[in-house]
Amino acid sequence: MVKVRAARPAEAEDLTALVMRSKAHWGYDAAFLAACAPELRIRAEDVAARRVVVAENGRGEVLGVASLEGTAPRAELGLLFVEPSAVGQGVGRLLYRDVLRRAVELGVRRLVIDSDPHAAGFYRAMGAVAVVAAPAPEAGGTALVRFAAAPVPLADWARAWTGGGRAVHLGNVGEFNAQFADATLDREQRPAHHYACLAAFYSPHPAALVLPRPVPRGWTELVCRQLGWTGVEVYDGLLDADPGLADAVRARPALAAQLTGAGLPLVPWGRTRQFGRLAGLPWRPEELRYESKSAAHGLFGRILADGGHPRIVLPRQWRVDGRWAAARMLAARTRAGESTVVKSEHGVGGSGTTVLTPARVRAAGGAWAVLRRLPRGPLLVEEYVGFAASGAGEGPRDLTYDGFVDEAGHAHEVGGAVMEVADGCYRGATVGPGVVPAWAEKSLTAFGTAVGRELADSGYRGWFDVDFVADGAGRLAPTETNLRLTGPSIAFMVAARLDALRGAGHLVRIVDRVELGARLPEAQLDELCAALVRGCAELGAVFVPAIPTGAFEPAPWLGVLVAARSGEVLDAAEALVRAEAREVGAMFGPS
Question: Which region, left, alpha or beta, applies to residue 356 given φ > 0 means left and ψ of -120 to 50 means alpha?
Fold first, then answer.
């Protein structure tokens, strides 16, 4: 195993030789290397002054060297060279990340890198941003490429979420859904077991993943490499059909003791009675009452009664007794030319939510014909918030606020995100600086914070979000709360990790489903993901496969995360992923 340690003054001569071998690796001639030598020399007295470190393998062999030079708030990556025989083994990546970590500790906020042109691709892949070409100090050499990075510590909210350390992630998505016994949720929880793969991202740095279904080993290795994780234990295949993952862990006393006895936070998708037994936490089912869409609507109304949120509007909502009553109300609204939202009391990802325009109702054969096709169970009828983009309201239609309540009852703000929603169904979300438009940010944050305080006072502990739709006039309408982790929360976790790992400013998009068009064996899935990592890196983006197990379904798909520092690059990365997925489908033929 390769580790980083401080260099020793007595090593200065040997380190200089390593630097020169590494420089020669790019094919420079002897005259050019001789001209470079004074600039690249490491003297014994420089080792401490230039903060020189080395990467060393288990046999004590030095494989690379790096230096962090200057003082806060601006510093330089003076050296980063790898022994030619170790190139491509992750040594440079390890050294660069160590420099970024130390820069954060020193209070550095801008790290400047003058890169050899041959190494420019490496720094770009590490997240540094090209600034200008700088004149090379070496006589007769090619101009260096100047990069800059913005070292930042892990976000305050992320440190508060798991105490800034590692955590055990429990993929109990099916277990959480099952406690509501809603007709819109699959009884076998097959989709939920796919979404349990998101357990990889429940915090910025997991110690262990506990999953109901087997996952490809190549997937976990790639995710760890992309996000700089080491030592992540994976416990998968714990369930055949029953959605009770926490009970499956408790049925294995040695595993339960290992996971709960390490002193690490145990993070679930959402709280359940079974999780409470496993974690030794009190179970209060009333904590989850605002998972109910009607209860959440009542909560929103109470908050708005205070009059402190002028840019928030609440759509009217009615709970109807039976399908005939719902049909009569829907028919009346259709005759009046009004669109309507019909909801189940619970549901995930938009399941159980249907938007019905008058044209759609008529095309289906009337209100009763529409309602007969919806899942059984209690229904809510809600006023549809229309969207006529104009003025300040131009922009995204669906937004969300994420936060959490810690065990002490303090509500923490995480941030806002823009969701992609089609016909009431969630398709993905984007987080990052500037994603939420300025006209919406203040009112979204203020209302989300108010909901967080109310949840804390009600006894709830854990992650939550508040979903909104925009009305096109600069106002937001809250539609529901989710008292669990969600797709946007996963994007926030990954953004926090990438910012700490690569420098500030990442936009992260989680894409719920990328259709593959062909079922893939594990080896071909690994090849596709490796190709997407390379292709996105060439664009200046990061690709992380989020849900791999859908690739083995009869109608195969893949959940993905892409990250970049601009919306244009983010869009290009998503387009690349979808195009490559289609190409794979064409190559392997129909499922």
Answer: beta
User: At 368, is the secondary structure helix, strand, or coil?
Assistant: helix
Six token digits for residue 362: 């008529």
| 466-472-478 Cα angle (round to 5) | 20
Q: What integer pLDDT is reported at residue 512 of this predicted model?
A: 93
pLDDT, residue 393, reads: 47
pLDDT of residue 139: 43
Amino acid letter, residue 255: L
**Strand (E) or helix (H) holding 293:** helix 293-304
pLDDT at 180: 84
Which residues, in sequence order, are CB contacts of 202 under 8 Å at separation 6+? Answer: 167, 169, 267, 268, 269, 485, 490, 493
Of 157, 169, 179, whose CA–CA distance to 291 is shortest? Answer: 179
- State how far the alpha carbon of 198 is from the alpha carbons of 403, 440, 538, in Å: 18, 28, 26
**Which residues are paired to 560 by β-bridges?**
511, 545
Cα–Cα distance for residue pair 234/219, rounded to 1 Å: 11
CA pair distance 373, 365, nearest whole angstrom: 11
Determine phi and psi for 328, rounding to 5 degrees: -65, -45
Predicted pLDDT at 386: 82
Alpha carbon distance 405, 515 (integer Å): 36
Within 8 A by CB and 6+ apart from 23, the residues are 33, 36, 40, 81, 116
Query: What was the pLDDT predicted at 189?
Result: 59
- Long-range Cβ contacts of 415-419 (<8 Å, 24+ apart): 415/157, 415/492, 416/440, 416/441, 416/444, 416/445, 416/448, 417/488, 417/491, 417/492, 419/467, 419/487, 419/488
Q: Which helix (H) or strand (E) holds 404?
A: strand 398-405
Give the integer Cα–Cα distance in Å for 109 and 77: 13
Q: What tokens appear for 570 in the block? A: 């983010």
pLDDT score for 141: 52
Residues near 98 by beta carbon (within 8 Å), at least 6 away in sequence: 4, 53, 66
Amino acid 1: pLDDT: 85
Question: Mean pLDDT, consecutive 10-residue segments, the chain of 591 residues?
Answer: 95 96 93 93 96 96 97 96 94 96 96 94 92 56 85 96 94 90 59 91 97 95 95 93 87 96 95 96 92 96 93 94 88 94 80 86 92 81 77 75 96 97 87 96 97 96 96 92 96 97 96 90 93 94 96 92 96 97 73 45
Query: 340: part of which helix (H) or strand (E)?
Result: strand 340-344
| Strand boundaries in 24-143, DSSP class E | 52-56, 62-71, 74-82, 110-115, 129-134
Distance CA 180, CA 346 (A): 7
Query: Given this model, what pLDDT does residue 183 score?
Result: 52
CA distances from 231 to 234, 259, 263, 491 (A): 10, 14, 16, 22
Task: List the structure tokens of 176.
Answer: 């959480």
How confident is the model at residue 539, as a pLDDT?
92
For residue 73, whether the previous peptide bond is cis, meaning omega lies within 30 degrees of 0, is: yes
Q: Sheet of 167-170: strands edge to edge?
A: 233-235, 206-210, 167-170, 266-268
pLDDT of residue 448: 98
What's the rounded Cα separation, in Å, for the pair 272 and 455? 17
Amino acid at position 586, single letter: A
